[in-house]
Amino acid sequence: MINSIRLDGPRRDPDSGKPAVQAVIFLHGYGSDGNDLISLAPYFAESLPDAKFFSPNAPEPGETGLGCQWFTLQGYDPDLMRRDPVRMGDAFSIMYEGAKIAAEPLNDYLDIILKDLGLPPNKLALIGFSQGAMMAIHVALRRTKALGAVIGYSGALLGAQYIKRETVAPPPLLLVHGSSDDVVPVNALTHMQETLDTADIPYSAHVIPNHGHGIEQVGATLGRSFLEDKLTRADQ
Fold first, then answer.
1. Tens-place pLDDT, residues 11-51
2. Of 117, 151, 159, 177, which sits with the fewest C-beta atoms within 10 Å of its C-beta?
3. From the centroid of its chain, how far is CA 19?
4. Are 149 and 128 in contact, with CB atoms under 8 Å apart?
5. pLDDT-derived band of residue 234, with 50, 70 and 90 as boundaries?
6. CA dist 148 to 77, 93, 121, 131, 191, Å?
7. What is the DSSP letter of 65?
8. Can you tell me the mean pLDDT for 206-212?
9. Does the CA dihedral 66-185-77-55 come out positive or negative?
10. Are 160 and 59 in contact (CB under 8 A)?
11. Position 236 in a domain
12. Residue (of 17, 12, 23, 8) closest to 148 by Cα position
C-alpha cells in the first residue's frame, strides 16, 4: 500500500561542506522522477550554501509507462481547464483524493529529514513543479507547523472547497506560472489566487509572459531570492 512506502531519491549535500542548516525538497512533475529537479540544486545552492537538497521519487509508477506520479491524472483535460475550470470539478476531486493518499508518505519523508538534520520546520522549503507543485501546496497548508517556504511552479490548487477548513499553518508561498502554459493553463493560477484570497492565505504570484510549462531563468531567479529571504532570516 502507498502509505507503507518510504520515499527516496537523489540528494545533494551542502556546498559549504558544513552540517546543513536548511533543507530544500524538490517535488517533480507527472511522469518524471527525482533526477529531474535535483539538477536545479547547484543554482539554488549559490544562495543557500548551507542547505541540503532532496528530490524524492513520487510513490506511484507513472500510468503512462514513464517515470513516477504522485496521483492519477485520469479525467484531467487542459483544454477544458482553459475554457471552463468549473467543469473540471470531477477530475479535481479525483486528484484531491489522490493527493491525500500521497501526502502520507511525503509527510513522513519531511519528518524524517527534519529529525535527521535536527532542523525546525521553518528551515525546510518545498519546491514543486506541475503535479509536484500541487503536492507541495496541498501538504504545506495542512502541516501543523509552518514550513519555511513553498514555491509552486506551474501548479494548481486541489480541494479548493476545503482550503479554509483544512489549512492549519500556511507557509510563505510563491506561485510562478507561464502565461502560455498549455499543460496547466494559467487559469489554474487565477483560480488558486481567488481561493487563497477568500481564505485569507497570503502569497506572492508572478506570471511569466510568453512562457509555457516549465521553469525558466526568471522563475528560477525569483525562487532563489524567495528562499534566500525566507530561510536565512536571522530571527528564525
1. 999 999 999 999 999 999 999 999 999 999 999 999 999 99
2. 117
3. 25
4. no
5. very low
6. 33, 28, 6, 21, 24
7. S
8. 97
9. positive
10. no
11. no
12. 23
* Residue 38 in domain: yes
Q: Give the single-character DSSP code of 149.
A: E
Does residue 236 register a pLDDT over 70?
Answer: no
The structure's pTM equals: 0.93
Enclosing domain of residue 153: 2-231
**Residues paired with residue 68 on neighbouring β-strands, in sequence order:** 32, 61
Closest CA to 184 of 226, 137, 141: 137
C-alpha cell at 103: 501526502
| pLDDT tens readout for residues 182-208 | 999 998 899 899 999 999 999 999 999
Q: Which three cell numbers stand for residue 120?
A: 525546525
In a domain, 10, yes or no: yes
CB burial of 186-199 (b: ≥16 within 10 Å; e: otherwise) equals bbbbebbeebbeeb
pLDDT digits (tens, 9 = 90+) for 52-64: 999 999 999 999 8
Task: Please count the structural domains in the chain.
Answer: 1
